[in-house]
Design goal:
Blueprint: H1 2-72
Length: 77
């Protein structure tokens, strides 16, 4: 009888240990996933800023072209 109780207690302890390891692995996987997400976010942010800068340059160039055309053309009233 004592052996059965000791065996059950051992199985119970082993079960808790396995659940603890499983939770630890899940937490580690979540942490790795968050790091990857942050890295992807930062990379995407840099790419979008570069695209925005290009668009701003194109807009400024177009504005200068239009202002140059406006100065060349005599005022009409």
């Amino acid at each position: 009888m004592k052996i059965k109780v000791i065996a059950m207690a051992g199985f119970l302890a082993a079960g808790f240990l396995m659940m603890s390891c499983s939770e630890s692995n899940k937490a580690e996987n979540r942490d790795q996933e968050l790091v990857q997400i942050e890295s992807d976010f930062d990379r995407e942010k840099v790419e979008l800023r570069a695209e925005l800068q290009e668009l701003e340059l194109e807009i400024d160039k177009k504005i200068m072209e239009l202002e140059a055309k406006k100065k060349k053309r005599p005022t009409q009233r």
